[in-house]
Every structure is written in C-alpha cells, then in structure tokens.
Amino acid sequence: MTYPLRFLFSVFPVVWCGLAQDPSPAPEVAGRVLEAGTLRPVPEARVVLTKAPSGATGFVAPKDALANTVTDSEGSFRLQPEFGVYRLEVSKEGWQPADQPLAAAPGNVLTFTLDKDHPSKTARFLLVRAAQVSGTILDRETEQPVQGEMVFAWRPLYREGKRFPAIAGLQSTSQDGRFRFSQLPPGDYLFQIAPRTRGGQRLREHFSPEELGKVGSEFETVYWPGGFDLDSAVPLSIASGSSLDLGSLRIERVPVYPVRAVVAGNCAPDRRVQIGVRPETESVQSTLGEVACGADFLITGFVPGAYRLVATLQGPDGRLSGSTPLVISDQTAEVKLSLDRGVDLDARFVSASSARLPDFHGISVRLTTIPGGTAPSASAPADGDGKLQLKGIDLSDYRIHISGLKGLYCVKSMRYNGAAIGDNTLRLNANSPRHALEIELSDRPSGIVGRVVDGDKQVGQPQVVLAPWPVSGDLYASIFRTSGDEQGNFQFAGLAAGEYRAFAVTPENRDRLEEPGVLRGLLTNAAGIQVGEGGVGQTTLQLTALKR
User: Fold this and answer.
1) Is the pLDDT of residue 73 over 50?
2) What is the C-alpha separation between 404 and 483, in angstroms, rounded?
3) What's 41's DSSP letter?
4) Domain 343-442: what homologous superfamily?
5) pTM to 2 decimal places
6) HSE-CB of 111 using CA atoms within 13 angstroms
C-alpha cells in the first residue's frame, strides 16, 4: 500500500502520541549468548545483572547482584528489573569473551540505562572456546624440517563478494619445523607459508651491480588448504575448543628475481615517494616503504608472475600517484613509474522537470573507492548554485555518496559525461578530456516503512536491505541498508519512485551478506514493494534465515 510522503512525518507523531497514553511497558532485559564464529547458542551461561547505586555519577557495581539467571537451550535469557542504570555480565566456565586478542567481537559486559523512553534492552554476547592448530613444515626436496619459516593464520572475511583476509596469528617454525597456534576462536581459516624476506625488507635504495643481476631463492608462498593464492585456497573450518594437527606440509624453493625501478617526473629529488606492490590476481596491496624521487631503487623477491607496482606522493598541492604493470619471467626487470596529479571532476545538481532546487548549504558529494581499490576518498561541498569540483582525484572507480538532502529530496538520476549511471558507481574514463557529473534531484521523494517479524515474534535490531529492482550494474553499489529498532520497526526515506525488493536478517548474519552470491540470491526471492512518486510504501518482512 502506498501513501503520500507527507504522512511519513505528519501521521507518525499522532500514532506515537496515542501509544503514549497507554500504560508504560514493564522494563525488560533480554538477549542471547552465542558462540563466536559458529553463532551456535551457549546454554547454561551465567547471566548477572547489577544496578548502579542511587545518585552515582558513574557506574559502580554493587557488592551483590540484583538478579542472575542462566541461559536456556537456545542461549536466551530474560530479566525484568525496574528502571535504572545497569551492568550486565555473562560467563561460563571454560569459555572466554570473544574480545580477547585476535578476536574482533563484542565482549561479555554491557552497561545501559532503562527508563520510560527506553524501557527495554536487547543484548547479544559472544563467547569462545579457543582452538589449537599445529603442523610441520618440510623441505619437499630434502624431506628435512624447515626452521624459521613464517606461518600466518588468516580469517577469510568478505566484502562485496571479494575475499579480504584478516590476520588471526603469526608463528615461526621451530628447529624441528613445528608451528602451533593455541588461541584461535572457532571459524574458517587459511594458513599461509610466507617468504622470510617481505615488506620493507625487500626495498633497497642503495645496491650494487652484483645485486641487480642476482637471482635468489625463497621457499614458495602457498596457502593451505589447496591454493597458491588467496582466492584459490579453500578455508578450513575449525570447531570451538578443538585441537587439530595439519600434519606435514611440504614446500619447495623457487627462484626469485629483483626489479630495478625509478619514479620520475612531477616531484623534486628531496621528496619521498611511497611504493606498494600487489599481485594482479589479488586485491590486497603490500606497502614496501619510501624512496627518493628520481633515484633508482631495487625491489627483491619477485617470483615469476604478474604484478602491479604503485607509487604515491602526498604533497602540498594534492596527491600524485602512478602505477605500472609488471611481469616477471626468468630475468631481472626494469620499470619506470610516472606520477600524475589526477583529474578534476566538475559536478552540479539539476532539477527534475519542474522540481524546485534546495538550499545547497550543507549538501556535499563524496567519492569512495570500491573494495580492492587504492584511490583515496574525495569530497567537496556544493556552492550556492549547486556546483562543486573534486580536484586531482585518481583515475579509478568510485561510489557516489550525497549528504545533506535530509530526506526532503531524492536523487532521480545521475549522468557522467552525458551517460546514465545506473548503479551509483562512477567509472572515470582515462581517455576523456573532461569529467562531468550531473545529479538530478526531485522534490517528491518516496519512502518505505515496515516491521520485521519472525513468525508472530518481533525481531530486535534487524538488518534490513533494500534494492531497486531490477538492479542495473553493480549490485552492492545499488542497495540501501538500515537497522531496525528493538521492536523491529525500520524506515527508508529519500527514495526515488519505483519497484524495490527487501529482506531482513539478524545482526549475527549481517556479515554473511558480503559472501559471494548471498546478496543476489536473497534479493531474487525477496518481497517486492512498489512506491509512487512522493508516496510511502508499507510492508511487513518475515525474517530470512541463512544456512551454511
């Protein structure tokens, strides 16, 4: 059902005033205790609620607990105290908070206030039982243990369908080639055997002619299980509290070659230029260090393959950058990098048909690089005529963000050099002599309001995803996201008229939407919502369950 947009703001206060005449709901604290990584419920966890003393300026835990309970088979708990300031803590013997080192997750303590405006609190806690992983590194040729080899433990996280590793641990092999990780939270892992010479150790500003032609050797870089690069490796699932021996991992030596390089042009000899490199098949760039502009330098340790060498310089007149492809076969390579200022993007806001334009004070445009990109963000405010210029930005792909519209206007369309942008992604054309962005505004924005339920139960703080349908271009760049309140209510404002699809998941499953294929699959089967120009669509979404 669709209503004029003015009711989004004028009717709701009346509804809330009506609710305020009812007796205030009883204060309540509810939540779940889950196992980090697997998100399985943790039953029989102890839950302790303490209240701050009356008149205390800061929270001071009283000697005795106000209330305590244990979680049920679903890891759930529920308490009904009076209004006040509280400290909630969960624990279980043999478990630890997931905010221990190497675990990026909430802890086991929460402080909050219950009052007539916030009578309820929903909490989620993550606990873990640490796992242990060990193994042995052997030289494939000699079958002898390899001492001093670096072994990384990575968590294969995802962003917009691309894999980005997060380091979970680092160990060096012992004299007998053994390594052991003893404090890993449960979850999926990759283990990487990395070269001993890496990062800044590979960069040399002073070198001899002998070093230039020297072919060295390193043990190969491999990911386990089963991959020679980050994208081809298959993650290993490690259970909570488990102890796993990976057995003997055999690696072999491979030749490595140096690269002679120089950064020339657009910088003085006393300026320092930052150098980075990445394999062409991966999104993660390694920063090697800084070199003098115009002087030769050497980078060692390249195994045969395709790479991209990147140079950047932040100066008083803006950022200079340059990159070049690099192919290593069976000999020393020489490359030259040139620094360029970037390009200027002229942007302006225009009105859709007879729409009135806003007061542009406080309205701005911001560009952010897509995942895996290296270009920095750029932003600029609009002037009184709705015009702005972004100076010296890298030739790259960007997401477009517009702030300050305050839900009173919506973006009806965008055009780059006259061509329509369908997915909120600006793709700068290196061959274009001029770069212009036109943003068409409508003063009749639409909206969508709704509620998320699980069967007949309310869902606290659901994660709601909305996408125009059908999606044209980059799916991740086209969607809108929001979090619902404790009762599952949510709202999207400032939308263009048209057809949308929406679904909702629990906060625990938010990161799963970044995995390859998950978002598109959910939107394909999601509920459809049609909103007219200046109208508000209403919907009730059933919570979507995600399965491994």
Assistant:
1) yes
2) 20
3) B
4) Immunoglobulins (2.60.40.10)
5) 0.71
6) 7
